[in-house]
Amino acid sequence: MRMRHWIAPRQRSTRFGRTNTEATMSQNDQQTPRERIEAATFWYSKAREELRARMLAVQDQIRAITEKQRPELIALVDQAANAKAELVALIESNRDVFKKPKTIQWHGVKVGLQKGKGRVEWNGSEDDIIARIEKTLDKASAKQLIDVKKKLKKDDLRDMPADVLAKLGVEVKDVGDAVVVKATDDAVDRLIKGLATDSVLGDDLAERAL
Q1: What is the DSSP letter of 166?
Q2: Max CA-CA distance within the chain?
Q3: What is the spatial distance between Cα 176 and Cα 17, in angstroms, rounded to a whole number?
Q4: Which of 117, 105, 111, 115 is nearest to 84 (CA)?
Q5: Phi and psi for 113 in degrees, rounded to 5?
Q6: Buried b (16+ CB within 10 A) or exposed e, 151-164
Q7: Among 5, 47, 91, 128, which residue's beta carbon has the most beta carbons within 10 A?
Q8: What is the pLDDT of residues 67-86, one digit of tens each?
Q9: Helix extents (H) in the chain
Q10: Which 3 state secondary structure label does DSSP give 180?
């Protein structure tokens, strides 16, 4: 039994403008495998074109809806940002509430105090510290602390033992408890981040932290 296959592109019915009466399935013994592959490639290309056109149309609709809702979205984002600022200030002025436990979860939000990251400082220039790291530590450890451009990596330095930091002339300051306000559900944050990448709302949302 011969396999049935699509006939040449000029005869095939599609969603791209041809009528159903032009559609037909036929045993086409005259088509070579190369021609059948070319025909299948043609229809794949047309399917991608239709998908792209629909995606662009959807993006335009989303952009129009976003533009229409822009004032209310900005107002609500500001409302949430202001509420967070007030909450942080309230926690800051009432640290005794969080002696034990340090954090409490209320209404889907973790609030309280957590160990601050601290500021990384050093004596001398950055080049001096890089030279000390390369001289004091093994190659693997030094690579972990220094960027390819030979720039100190403060986050990794912060995690080094105090005695090693002392040898390097580095000090981590302000390591006290810092206020933490973190929603356990980050769905809203992800939505805001997505909107911030859009040209319509990007400038308005880029600096707002929730």
Answers
A1: H
A2: 87
A3: 69
A4: 111
A5: -130, 145
A6: ebebeebeebeeee
A7: 91
A8: 898 899 889 989 998 999 99
A9: 33-92, 126-136, 139-145, 154-158, 162-168, 187-196, 202-205
A10: strand
